[in-house]
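Data availability (excerpt). The following record was deposited with the supplementary files.
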Amino acid sequence: MKKSLQLFELIHSMSKSEKRYLKVNNQREGSIYLKLFDKILEQEQYDDAVLKEVLVTEGIRSPLPRVQHHLYTLLLRSLAAFHALQHPRYQVMDKIRYYILLRDRGLHQQGKAVLGKALRLAQEHNYYGLVLEITDLMEDWVTEEKSYDVALAQQQQLTVLVRDNTQYIQSVAALKQQIFELRLFFLKHKFARTKEQSAQLKSYEIYPLRVLDQTSNPLKKRLLLTILIYVYYGLQDYESLIGIEKKRIALLNEGWATAHISPFLVYSFHRNLLWIYLTNNQYQKHQKLLIALQKDPSISVLSSASYYAVKLSLAQSVSSMYADVNRQYYSKAYRQIQPIWTIFKHNKAHYDLELLIQSLILFLNTTFCLGKFDECLKWLNFIEQEIPASYLLPYQNMGKVAHLLIHHGLGNDRLIENMLESTRIRLYRKFNFFFVANTFLKYFRRKIKHKSDDPKGLLIKYQSEMQQIAKQEAQKGFFILFNFVDWFEAEIKACYIADLYK
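Predicted structure:
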């Protein structure tokens, strides 16, 4: 990404208090930077022509990229200074810098006192990397000391400190390694689909369960809980998942800095719990959490930037619509489409691709079940045109079937006949969805090609076949698009799927 766009994104991510701090404390940097800052802040889309005009007006001959580079650096310095007193990590880093300044002036006693405070703060908050840096600086104490006894005591203290910190680093690294392994398992398999995979996940469960209640260290506790989150998610043990995710959220009250909890983790903890409740059909608990989140200051306490607060708000909106679709409240869900889509268009940077796909599938599901097939086709075309193919690969057959069903709803029988010919040789057998797709293809071939004399009987026959497919564990995930069994029922009763639940 070009520096100009980086600058644009950085400026628009700043809070009111951060902007105010910049202007109050950087008047001497030269008004040109603040004028460029204000111009970029006014822009909804980056336009360097306006910025070049400012340089000409102010008589600045330096090229715009150079001025932008200096402004970007100025913003980072200002943000760092603004947050210096709000985060313990900043405080430790500042004290390390102060020590070096004092040491280089020969003010050793003053420097030792400052570095000692940095060490205590770093140990208190599990900043093992900073402890390592501090021990490196403490070598000065030994080499500069004139007294043998004092130097020996300092050397012994330093040896113990390095040894204990090294052991701590190794123990944390071992837990993180397990999290990385489980993350890779999740990316590859999502869920345990074989006995071997279940046994593999359960092997990760043993150690965390044994030591979790005995661990007082918030960072280790968070890592142990994260291991269990991956294990129970892979095993689809949603009851255990809820309990573990609640414990992770409870860490916020035990000391977010000591557990190394970032605004991203606050967002992910709450987002995960929302979806776990929905997956477990605990709609009342989901609704209570939505209400509680409106009063929860967790993210704002950690950061004055609104990025993750907006992301969590989006996740709340999408999960709320998901709950309505899951309970077949299609009219209520439909009223949420436009507000959610409007939020998306104005906050594209806050939408991750997975949440966007979930939103589009919900839009597709809702409009289809209500019989709004023109809108439904619009959302399906958007998915296929805007979402990278690599993310849609498992749903290739799903998209083909969706086109068949939508055009059937629109009465485009001639188009369906052409689609059957092109789809026949393009089904991807290696994907689990093949069985669902193949059932629909057989039904439409019989219906269109063979002109069945008993259309209702044909529907009942393939509805029965789809009911059996729906019971297969590997197929359940694909029924989020439409309830395919209900589609057959709606066709039999000559109504829309939404009408079945009225």
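Summary of structural features: The chain has 25 helices and no strands.
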